[in-house]
Amino acid sequence: MYTKLKDGIRLYFHYIAISLRSTMQYKVSFFLMVTGRFLVSFNGILGVYFMLSRFGHVKGYTFGEVLLCFSIIQMDFALAECIGGGFAVFSGIVRQGEFDRILLRPHSAVLQVLGSRFRIDRIGLILQALAMFLYGIIVSPVDWTMGRVITVFFMLVGGTVLFISFFWLRAAFTFFTLEGIEAFNILTYGAKEHGKYPVDIYGKKMLQVCTYIIPYTLIQYYPLQYLSGRTDRWYYGLYPFGVAGTVLVCYMAWKFGMRHYQSAGS
User: Fold this and answer.
1) What span, in angstroms and rounded, lies between the C-alpha atoms of 123 and 37?
2) Residues 6+ apart with CB under 8 A from 191
3) Which has the closest alpha carbon to 251: 162, 172, 161, 159?
C-alpha cells in the first residue's frame, strides 16, 4: 500500500514537472499571462474597497475583515484550479478520448487526471490573493495568536480541497453527460463570488444552505468568526475538517460514474 501511494505521488510530481517544462517553453507568454491575471483580478477588490469606503462596514465587518475573507476564498479557488485543473476540464478529456487511454495505464485514474492539467498560470491569481491577504493583516483588527494562524492554514487547505471536490463532482457527472453541466458552476464560481463576503450578510437561509448543502461556510464563515474575535469558540477553527464529508460524497460519485462509463466513442 505504501509503495503504491509513493509511486502515485511520484507520478503526480512527474506530471507537474512535464507541465512546467512545457509552459516555460514560452516564457514571455507565460509572464504576460500571469501578469494579466494578477492585474485583472484586482477588479473585484476595488468593488469591495469603494463600497466599504462609502459605508464603512457591511453588517459589522470592517474592510480589513472582508479583505481577509475575500483573499482566503480567492486563494482557495486559485489553488484548486491550479492543482485540480484536470477535473475542471474533464469533459474535454473524455470527449477527446484521452480518458480511455488513461484507463489503460496501470496507475490511479484520479492522479492521472489531476496531473494532466496542472494550471501553473494560476500563480498570478495566487500572488494577487496573497498580496491582498498580507494587506488585510495590516488593516484588520485581528489579534493574531498561534491558534488563529493555524486557523488560516486550515482555511486554505480545507478550501482548496473543497473546491477541488466540487470540480471532481462535476467530472463524475460527465461520465453520463459527456459535457460539463453548467449548473455546477454554482458550486465553484458561485461559491467563489459569494465567498468574497462573510455568508451571513446574505441572510439566515443562505447561511443554512451554505452550511448543509453547499458547505463552504466550513472554510469561510465559521473559521472567520473565530479569526475576527466574534466568538471565543476555538473549535470553529477546526470546521474546515468537515469538508471530508464532501470529499467522500464526491469519491462515491466518481466510483459510480467509473463503473458505468462506456467510452466517449472518440
Assistant:
1) 9
2) 73, 77, 163, 166, 210, 214, 216
3) 172
Grid cell 484550479 is found at 81
Identify each DSSP E strand in 15-120 by its residue range: none
Q: How far is CA 48 from CA 70, 76, 139, in A?
A: 9, 18, 14
pLDDT tens track for 180-222: 667 777 777 777 877 888 888 888 888 888 888 888 899 999 9
Read off the C-alpha cell for 248. Answer: 467522500
Contacts of 30 (CB under 8 A, 6+ apart): 23, 24, 120, 121
Residues of the chain short of pLDDT 50, as ranges, are none
Instruction: Indicate the length of the chain as a whole number.
Output: 266
Task: Look at the pTM and tell me if it is higher than 0.70.
Answer: yes
